[in-house]
Every structure is written in structure tokens, then in C-alpha cells.
Specification:
Order of helices and strands: HH
Structural class: mainly alpha
Largest sheet: none
Shape: rod-shaped
Distance between the termini: 101 Å
Number of helices: 2
Length: 63
């Protein structure tokens, strides 16, 4: 057999089975990065909420 035929045969053997497709390492890394980013955003949001003064001052009477 020639080299191109062997490569074609190898490609057919390594073909992706649709029933076994998974996100893989890249999918996990993207999901983990989104989770970490969400955690940092929530932490920052909580810090900003703690700085907000919710005590209302009484309005001064209008003349």
C-alpha cells in the first residue's frame, strides 16, 4: 500500500464517533474560567454593596 492510502485508512479509524463526543479539556477550561470570573465578580459586587449607605436622611422642609 502507498503512504496516502495508509493515511486515509488511519484517518478513517480515528474518525470521531458522534456518540462519544465530549467537550474535552478545552470545554472544561472555558467552563472553569467562567466559574472563576463569576466568583470574582460576585466578590466585587458584595464589596460594593457594603459601601452603600442605606440610611435615609430626613428631607429638609421646603420654604
Amino acid at each position: 500500500m502507498s503512504a496516502p492510502v495508509n493515511l486515509t485508512h488511519l484517518a478513517v479509524e480515528l474518525a470521531v464517533d458522534d456518540a462519544k463526543v465530549t467537550p474535552g479539556l478545552l470545554g472544561f477550561l472555558v467552563f472553569a474560567a467562567l466559574g472563576v470570573a463569576t466568583w470574582f465578580l460576585a466578590k466585587s459586587m458584595n464589596k460594593q454593596f457594603k459601601r452603600v449607605n442605606f440610611a435615609e436622611e430626613p428631607e429638609s422642609p421646603k420654604e
